[in-house]
Each structure stands twice: as structure tokens, then as C-alpha cells.
Design a protein that fits this description.
methyltransferase activity (chains A, B); methyltransferase (chains A, B); mainly beta; S-adenosyl-L-methionine (chains A, B); 8 strands; Elongation Factor Tu (Ef-tu), domain 3; homodimer; YaeB-like (chains A, B); 6-stranded antiparallel β-barrel
Chain lengths: ~130, ~130
């Protein structure tokens, strides 16, 4: 897998970062590498997108976690949780584009940390709204 | 990235396969590698999941495509389409689990081809319903 760009965000500390976008995540820039200019050319303000990232600070050896919503619950397999610690730590973030400036796309409420590699961007389908 | 399993499906031909699950995709098995047994232990019938795959038959050099919905429209950057041909061909499939049999999980309406590597499974969040 090849990064297509990276996240620029005020979030730098995993322990302080919100776990989901609706928990107070700040706006952030998606900074595309110039070789992907054609692939991102139709991104525009107002669109809802799915941003796929590679959570490079994750622990890939983790197979089960105590659910964050209730730490007293028993350990749960990571494929039934959104834990960033998992065998292939792909982050999936739904976000709304608020501005485009050259190779930089600003999105509202992204919970990814500063410097996180971006691996794909997809439009939201009707069935996912 | 390390496959966590693979898809078993009657779909073997990319050109004949439906492009989205609601276009007549058949049921399929997610076959997990035994080392991920703990990670998939809480998957159960009735749950809605997001299956992330690696579309290993994709053309990773493609940056723009004619939209399938209207081939007369001009070429569109792949980050604004769901084309499988894209720099990092990660497939994102929403599916409902209909049965679990050991390391095998049966899902309804999956448009992935037989043998496609699975790289992650996540629960659907409330905001994605």
C-alpha cells in the first residue's frame, strides 16, 4: 500500500484525541501528493467522503480489547470494535469537505492524528447516508 | 498489509460481477485465517458489518474513469468514484451476517469476487446506518 497523502491536524496526541468524529474532532487538511492530482480533481466543498487512513501508531498485535463504551464488559474481538489497535489498522472516517485549495482538501471533524497517512478517498453512497 | 482471510463466492468473473451489493450480489463466506479466531469471536448472525477487502485484480495505475452511471460524462478522478481501479484498491462492502460456522462467516449480498483477500472487518456505527 502506498500513501496518497497525509493528514494535517491540530491533533498530535493519541491519548487526547477523540475516538469518533462526533466527539469534538477538529477540522483538518487532507494533503494529497502531487502525483494524485488527477484522482482528486473532482473533490469539492459540500461533498461527503469516506477517508481511509493507515493508523501508523496502532498496535497490530492486538486481537481483543475492553470496549471503550463499557470497560467492565469482557474483552471483545477487534473485528467487533472500532479499536485502532487491530491486525490491519485502516482508519475509516466519514467527513464533509469544506474547502479545496490546490492539492489540499479541508474536511470538518476528522479524528485522525497529524501526519497520519491517507490511503484512499471514496464518495459516500446513497445507502451509506 | 496482511490478509486476515479471504472471500468464498460464486462470483469469479469481474466483468459479470455486480458493482454494488444492491445489484443482485450473492451471499458469500468470509473465511478467516485461524490466527484471527480471537478477533472474530464476537461476530454473530444479524450484525451489520463493513468488510474491507484488497481488490487484487484492480489496475492501480488508473487515476480517472468514465462514471459507470453515465459513460458519456467526462472522466472523473477515482477519489470521486467507487471504481475498483485506483491507487490503493481497498474494497468497502457493507453486509449483514447471516450465519457463523467456526472460522467461516456467511454474509448476504457481497459483491467481492471469489478469492479476494479480506483485510479488516468493522461494526457499522450508528451514524453510518
Amino acid at each position: 500500500m502506498q500513501p496518497i497523502g497525509h493528514v494535517e491536524s491540530p491533533l498530535t496526541d493519541r491519548s487526547a484525541a477523540p475516538k469518533q468524529a462526533d466527539e469534538g474532532a477538529p477540522d483538518a487538511w487532507l494533503v494529497f501528493a502531487p502525483e494524485y492530482a488527477r484522482a482528486m480533481a473532482e473533490l469539492a466543498a459540500g461533498q461527503d467522503v469516506l477517508v481511509l487512513t493507515w493508523l501508523d501508531r496502532a498496535d497490530r498485535s492486538v486481537l481483543a480489547v475492553h470496549p471503550r463504551s463499557d470497560p467492565n464488559r469482557p474483552e471483545t474481538g477487534v473485528f467487533s470494535t472500532r479499536s485502532p489497535d487491530r491486525p490491519n489498522p485502516i482508519g475509516l472516517h466519514r467527513a464533509t469537505i469544506v474547502a479545496v485549495d490546490g492539492f489540499r482538501v479541508r474536511v470538518a471533524h476528522l479524528e485522525a492524528l497529524d501526519g497520519t497517512p491517507i490511503v484512499d478517498v471514496k464518495p459516500v453512497l446513497g445507502t451509506e447516508r
